Amino acid sequence: MTSPADLSLVEGEISEDERMFDELIANEQRIEPRDWMPDAYRKTLIRQISQHAHSEIIGMQPEGNWITRAPSLKRKAILMAKVQDEAGHGLYLYSAAQTLGITRDEMMDQLISGKAKYSSIFNYPTPTWADMGAIGWLVDGAAIVNQVPLCRASYGPYGRAMVRVCKEESFHQRQGFEILLSLMQGSDEQRQMAQDAVNRWYWPSLAMFGPPDEQSPNSAQSMKWKIKRFSNDDLRQRFVGMLVPQAEILGVTLPDPDLRLDEETDRYVIGEIDWDEFFEVLRGNGPCNAERLERRRTAHENGAWVREAAAEYARKQARAWDPEPAETAGSLSLSKGA
Ligand SMILES: [Fe+2]
Ligand SMILES: [Fe+2]
């Protein structure tokens, strides 16, 4: 992405393009697809947005697993709407990533070949109905805390996609909370089921914010570029601060005996997160990694005919709208090829 003018630059000097980029960032303005941007900024965004898209798509599976077994028609309708929202989030995000010069096919290949990463939390199983409640409350809750600041991300298409995504995440979090609330008002067995699900999802949801600040080397650059606005630990604090009063209303216990508010610093003291487990799951060794990927791969293969039909339809539409007059169309179509 070097323009001819850059060749005359002395080492240490910045180009006019770079100066404009820095100025837009400094003034809280947005970088748009056609603007010049440093290669590292583009690469970081492609990685982040595509991983985010993959997480939304893989994230449909742990809950999709319960659509046929939801306890009532109303619960089923709500869960279906929620899972469809996640598909929509994936699609907005793939579109946003495409504006940076990567194709949908490339991203899909990276996902189904196992090369791409996605949020590690979706590699955990959902053995009970209460897991639907815990995922909504904790996983979508963590997603909101992470994503609300992303509405102000410096890259325009990403920030704008996040606005709608966050509105939907807020519905997801409430539906999860409400599932847990109903269970907590039920029988002893139902209360236990809700507590067990919270115990399963609490720690992985805290890990969703990523490693502690001192072990997160890319964060500083992302904050400088105003993609990221708050550090991993600050976001984690905000999340725990949101959960504590809600857990009280629910009547569930957060499974961390060390958890307390330090009055002096006004920050929560949080027990030790098992980062070894986090990195193991990230490396592909979680309880459901293979299953999630296999399912995605099969769905992709089964959808081949839909993609072919859509491409053929688009070709036909393009021909129907060809503005060339009818009498010359024959010769033109020869020179234009397929
Ligand atoms: Fe989502
Ligand atoms: Fe969600």
TrEMBL record:
Stretches the record annotates as Disordered: 316-338
MF-aspect GO terms: phenylacetyl-CoA 1,2-epoxidase activity
Highest rank taxon of the organism: Bacteria
Lineage: Bacteria, Bacillati, Actinomycetota, Actinomycetes, Micrococcales
Pfam families tied to this protein: PaaA_PaaC (PF05138)
Name under which the protein is recorded: 1,2-phenylacetyl-CoA epoxidase, subunit A
Gene Ontology BP term (one): phenylacetate catabolic process
SUPFAM superfamilies tied to this protein: Ferritin-like
GO cellular component, one term: cytosol
Listed EC numbers: 1.14.13.149
Keywords: Oxidoreductase
InterPro entries: Aromatic_CoA_ox/epox, Ferritin-like, Ferritin-like_SF, PaaA, PaaA_PaaC
